[in-house]
Amino acid sequence: MKTFKKNDFVEVYIEDMSDSGEGIGHADGMTFFVKNAVIGDTVEAGVTKVKKNYCYARTNKLIKESEFRKKPICGISSPCGGCQIQQLSYEKQLEFKRKKVADCFRRIGGFSVDCQNGDGLFINPVIGMENPVNYRNKAQFPFGKGKNGKPVVGFYAGRTHSVIPTEYCSIEFPGHEEILRGIMEYVSAVGESVYDEESGKGTLRHVLMRKGFVTGEIMVVMVINADGLCDEKLFTEILKKIPGMTSIQVSINKENTNVILGNKCRTLYGRDYIVDKIGDVSFRISALSFYQVNPVQTLKLYRTAAEFAGLTGKETVWDLYCGIGTISLFLAEKAKKVYGVEIVPQAIEDAKKNSALNGIENAEFFTGAAEDVYNEKKFPADVVVVDPPRKGIDESLVKGIALMQPEKIVYVSCDPATLARDCKKFDEVGYKVQKVQPVDMFPETVHVESVCLLTQNLA
Ligand code: SAH
């Protein structure tokens, strides 16, 4: 095997892609993980880091373009790094995600997986989008200082906290650029300062915005390292002219932390929430509450979860990690009773108001950690839905669920690695994975959502 060093160049054919979206190829007995290369490319790779058995590299020159390559959707794809696989055709992106889920079930879960419909666990083809652009309903932009020291807004350059100024992002909802322009107009008019992580001084940290795709309602939250903006009246004047503006807030965050929002928000204009609809159900969404970011795909995701739950009207359902009660209320119509559990108190407030908003009377919500509330209440259920954050579910919850023996578990997951790990644990306590349906909630990125049905293994 040849030895390589940083800045060496090598010709590599890209045979595969890693979970994080780098092209994988081999040359001279060495494995290369190459940035900005897609499966089928032949590239001249420039080595950026040498490890014992592999090297990191970036694409220096495209020698032969892959048939699966497409034009990136955005001009700052390389420094931003948010849309890791935007050079891959959409069809191939869906294949990549299906393989990623399959690999997790095989490697981490220890399942025998067969995507050809053979003997093993079958991973369904990924449900994609018809038009995978401008799909996000929520955007978060950091403020920073430009070359001349003036405030800018944009994106962090991959893995750093230096801000690349930008007004437009192809995956964000149409109209976010108008909001950013309004904000920067205000910032330069009053000379608002930018927060500096080193010194802890300066005001502007982030702006968070959300838009209800069905209702058109918009929320803007300025995250600041101060008790208020210099001229909140002017700020409101400028932003409220934007059609759909429903809620303008400031969130006070004086901590030296990577957490974006502070715990307290103050409303400058309108309501402290927006309303949106998924299917026939309306939801109020507060600044601190979780709400799925891709509304078009959310409907497909929840329909899949509902289909897997297979409710007839007689069932008692637990919806653990329920957020603002989206899945709970989506299922309530077809169930006898739904219990929701969520750790963020504001989200539970929203969930309760959402039941009332939709005239739903058979849903009840509890604030707390899923593993604590469920294991303490011990109300028996026919179906348990879990939709945890990336880290997956606590071992004590797997045991707690097994103890209560629901007929079905519907696991909604945004990380196939922890999904596979938890499915293995469920398998050990008598639940069998029946179906796995990935849904593409995040086109152009390496992320994939999945819905999984587990049933009691009565054999
Ligand atoms: N099912 C909802 C929310 C899913 S996101 C939806 O589809 O909209 C995951 C949620 O789990 C978040 O709202 C987060 O606040 C919550 N959460 C995180 N850890 C938790 C825990 N230990 N117990 C309960 N909820 C938790």
Query: What order do the strands of the largest sheet run in, or round the barrel if closed?
Result: 8-7-6-9-10-11-12
* Molecules bound to protein: S-adenosyl-L-homocysteine
- First-to-last CA distance: 51 Å
Report the principal-axis shape.
globular
Number of helices: 10
Range of helix content: 10-25%
For the largest beta-sheet, the strand count, sense and barrel status come to:
7 strands, mixed
CA radius of gyration is 24 Å
Q: Which stretches of 5+ consecutive residues score pLDDT under 50?
A: none
Structural category:
alpha/beta
Mean pLDDT: 95
Number of strands: 21
Beta strand % = 25-35%
Q: Can you describe this structure?
A:
The protein is built from 10 helices and 21 strands. The chain has helices at residues 77-80, 90-107, 176-190, 232-239, 295-309, 326-332, 345-357, 370-377, 395-404, 416-428; strands at residues 9-17, 23-27, 30-35, 42-50, 54-64, 138-145, 151-156, 163-165, 204-211, 218-224, 245-252, 264-270, 273-278, 281-286, 316-320, 337-342, 363-367, 383-386, 408-413, 431-439, 449-456. α2 packs parallel to α10 and α3 packs antiparallel against α4. With 459 residues, it is of the alpha/beta class. The strands form 4 sheets. The chain has a 7-stranded mixed β-sheet with strand order 8-7-6-9-10-11-12. The structure holds S-adenosyl-L-homocysteine. S-adenosyl-L-homocysteine (SAH) is lined by residues 290-292, 321-323, 326-327, 341-344, 347, 369-370, 387-389.
Blueprint (SSEs and pairs):
Blueprint: E1 9-17, E2 23-27, E3 30-35, E4 42-50, E5 54-64, H1 77-80, H2 90-107, E6 138-145, E7 151-156, E8 163-165, H3 176-190, E9 204-211, E10 218-224, H4 232-239, E11 245-252, E12 264-270, E13 273-278, E14 281-286, H5 295-309, E15 316-320, H6 326-332, E16 337-342, H7 345-357, E17 363-367, H8 370-377, E18 383-386, H9 395-404, E19 408-413, H10 416-428, E20 431-439, E21 449-456
The protein binds S-adenosyl-L-homocysteine.
